[in-house]
Fold this sequence. Notes:
This protein is of the alpha/beta class. The chain contains 18 helices and 17 strands. The strands form five sheets. A six-stranded parallel sheet has the order 3-2-1-13-14-9, sandwiched between helices. A four-stranded antiparallel sheet has the order 5-4-8-10, covered by helices on one side. The longest helix is centred in the C-terminal third of the chain and has 29 residues, at about 340-370. 5'-O-[(L-methionyl)-sulphamoyl]adenosine (MSP) binds next to strand 1, helix 1, helix 7 and strand 13.
Amino acid sequence: MTARRCYLTTPIYYVNDRPHIGHAYTSLATDVMARWKRMDGYEVFFLTGTDEHGQKVEKAAQVAGEDPQAFTDRVSMSFRHLVDVMGFSNDAFIRTTEQRHKDACQALWNRLVEKGEIYLGHYEGWYAVRDEAFYGPDELVERDGQKFAPTGAPVEWVREPSYFFRLGAWQEKLLRFYDDNPDFIAPNTRRNEVISFVKSGLTDLSISRTSFTWGVKVPNDPSHVMYVWLDALTNYITALGYPDESTEAWKKFWPADVHFVGKDIVRFHAIYWPAFLMAADLPPPKRVFAHGWWTNEGQKISKSLGNVIDPLALVSQYGLDPVRFFMLREVPFGQDGDFSKRALSGRLNELANDLGNLSQRTLSLIQKNCEGKLPALTEPTAADLELLGPISELPAMMGDCIERQAFHEGLEKLWVVVRLSNAWIGQQAPWALKKTDIVRMAAVLRHLHTAIRTIATVLQPFMPTTMGKMLDQLAVPEELRDLAGLATPLADGIALPPPEVLFQKVQDEVA
Ligand code: MSP
């Protein structure tokens, strides 16, 4: 049996600015998968952190009038704060200015030198500081006589001595690797983009700069700092103890199971990173999943438009779990999506009307009609199986979706069952059975309890606090809240606390 272990990462975030919804989104998806895997009995290592070197951060520090280290110390804290506010369950938080990380980068560099993968030359070409990326002349677009990267970032002409990584020599090996590992890049659109980019020809990659100093020094040539992406990508192995490959963490968790990234940084993760690793004789990660981008009320999000969405403000206005639910329910993970007040209100009302209503109705009937005690479990009838059948399939269904990072699909399919449960309660009408068949009423309420327990358990990774409260109301003991726990029925007759409303309805807001 393969070990039940799982290593999941978010990108490490540039500390040039405050956290925005994009940062919260990538980490949220990673958090949900990490929580799911833990609940499924896996040993999980979930890593996030901050990317603190490079020209972009150096410039931001200059603009702020601060020394880069003091600046990164300060801004990095705001990303730690985001972790707390969003309830992320990461096991570690890495900063690229940590000494252990600089050591790891230099060790990887030395290994690449030993393998003959690095040579000294001269770089001349286009560079976009905003993307921290080099672009070929044919990739650029021209507007008003000025050249821009395909991402819209301004580019500048750079000419300086530089070390190169022999990326060109990895073209065929990468293509073979993608072929042998069809799940390495997802979704498929991104996989196709990457493959066609690699097929169009790879040139050697400039991996050092001399025109600024805020970076990891190149071993034996301190006039160069490493290209920030070589530095940044290495964080995924630093955190496991690299270059010490004898650590427990390294042995347990490398290669990573999923690197969660946004679509804009696929090239670095799906081309450069496996090439660096294979060149250093290290195994590449198993999968890179790229999500899409949010727009705000139909508009591209940008600082200049002043429409950046602040996740902290959202959480303080709507509450954490509704925001977490909204982000993964609203947009298929992997596609672009639009953030609108109207869509958000719709999803919040869905929580209140469908899930809130289901549990509130069931639990208050148990409170009122069964003295607040859990009715006894009975053999299900054919009618009961119409509810219990689909309910029993939820854990496996969600597990399968999460394995494919199809969070939206998992929630969509789960919601079908929430609605079915509401329809079922309507058909069974336990409130009417109170007068006609009290035994049947009790049986119906017990099956509803089972249904809600399963739904709340499966939803815990998405809405940890609220589902925790729901499981409290259902009197599910802590030790039975994981997936394995679902197999153990609760004892008949245990006391349920009086139910409380868990989701508030909101007025439809139109922006
Ligand atoms: N530092 C690099 C990553 C290095 S990983 C070894 C970086 N940082 S970032 O702070 O600019 O971006 C982090 C993430 O935010 C990316 O995954 C990016 O896709 C995501 N987003 C930025 N804006 C976004 C939206 N408007 N919508 C969704 N995600 C977006 O890149």
